[in-house]
């Protein structure tokens, strides 16, 4: 079939016509091969302009379309829709930017016109090499797998569950609640106590749209957005295996604690009555604050920042819970002497400063210090430290409570491998973008929330769970099909040598290796179309639709002609 | 010499950052030399080293590669490949005694219209100073 390319130049009011000599442009390009019509129009993106264009495409029986107008970032989608209406495949269209990157950039009209001619000619020659591309639609499962039954996983499940969306909440221990189960109290200044967590667990258990698996490990996850296949095994019931499908995955596997034994200077495990924060929470729960000898302590040191230097980050929560402990101690044992040894105080939220000021008023000492060393001297604890003034000082106490850094959960590396997720230099999961896209990951449909992403408090974990839920709710709409990217990569079997270079280049895990055929395979349903693999292929076997070598070479050649 | 020499420069720009930054330069009515011809790609990671040689063979006097700032790639790390390929092209050019000064890599974000105008002008001036690419006459044409 012979080609008939239609070229339409938009005057854009006077935005383009004032700065480019459109008539001489049209004259210049109308004699090019396959150009059937070349016209100008006042404002193509207006309702009248779109109608005119659609009618003209049909009337002229155009096979290809070139529009010289604003940036494709502005109206490419608009005109692709017009193509669809007019029965022209929208990928047989090329939008040429002669406004932002031509008319508006070059004040000399003659020079701007010359450049516009080159751009339009490149567009015409490129479009002649375009191929029709068809949108595909994929069934998508609205259900969600939530991994981890701590506060973040609970909140994600509650936010997502509904009549048309089932949630599979998988928890490796035998109870929901996660780390909060080990806390005796939450930070009272945030107006919360542990009953809010219990309430939420009850809501989960009473929600018919949430299926809870406790003592269960996720064994395998395969697939992509809308179509994940999951298998889990129950660790108690003779490794009973279950399989189900979900459209999205929320990873909420929480955190672990830095082992203070890794830094012997803290004396943990060595010096009697040196305990960690969780052990103190257990003491609070029991109601008995006592030393090994059964007597209550007369003096307590709270050691912040245990492992901060070693891990290289602040754990955000330790200052506040150490203040919580100090206040608890003062209330419980009014005569106790409490000292907080901190490096820097982290009091970021609006009610934190006041909570700290109140603690100072209660007579709690705050000592900025460094180089902490805890020794057993004649059955008493001696805290040696370097003060803010740089002096070596020491303090004898009966008990020392260490606030260890929050570290990635021990399951993190395994989970990262299973889902093909990157970790950052701290060992926590890495965000798709730390600032702009903080709960998404490079894998579409997989989200990470809560302390699996890094240290944070309960409210921040809840915020992240709700954020991920919002993203999932707006993507996986029950009954709605997914429309994956059309401009995807494609591997030409006859050229692929099976070197697998592309597998390591693709950040989205889209490419796999077919052992039987000995070649790489692209999963077009999840390819994002960046084209990074194309340039990496040593045998030129990969092609990316709509940005092929011939199309781009032609564009380059014409732009230089 | 009848007229001042205007070089021909091909710029490969990713659509998410640099192309948007270039649009912004236009919206801000910043002046860009007419020597620049932009080829829009989805990601700078699409830039095959062959594009650069192809551009020179086709008569380009200079080639610009532009993408999102490191860490900001829309596709996570396409621009890291760009950076690596830029280095590769440079070493290949060096080994062939070709002029590496005619190849240019820059990170331009969607909000850096001013930077786009600045770097393109600077590069265009440099290429104007270097004169026409001798390679296209001597070797390729």
Top keywords for this entry?
heterodimer, A: 561 residues, alpha/beta, Rossmann fold, FAD/NAD(P)-binding domain, 4 domains, seven-stranded mixed sheet, five-stranded parallel sheet, 16 helices, 30% helix, B: Rossmann fold, four-stranded parallel sheet
How many domain modules of chain A? 4
The SS-based structural class of chain B is: alpha/beta
By CATH, the topology of the largest domain in chain A is FAD/NAD(P)-binding domain
Radius of gyration of chain B: 15 Å
Proportion of residues in extended strands of chain B: 15-25%
E-strand count of chain B: 4
- Structural class of chain A, please? alpha/beta
Name the CATH superfamily assignment of the largest domain in chain A: FAD/NAD(P)-binding domain
Helical stretch count of chain A?
A: 16
Shape of chain B: globular
**Which parts of chain B are unreliable, with pLDDT below 50 for 5 consecutive residues or more?**
none
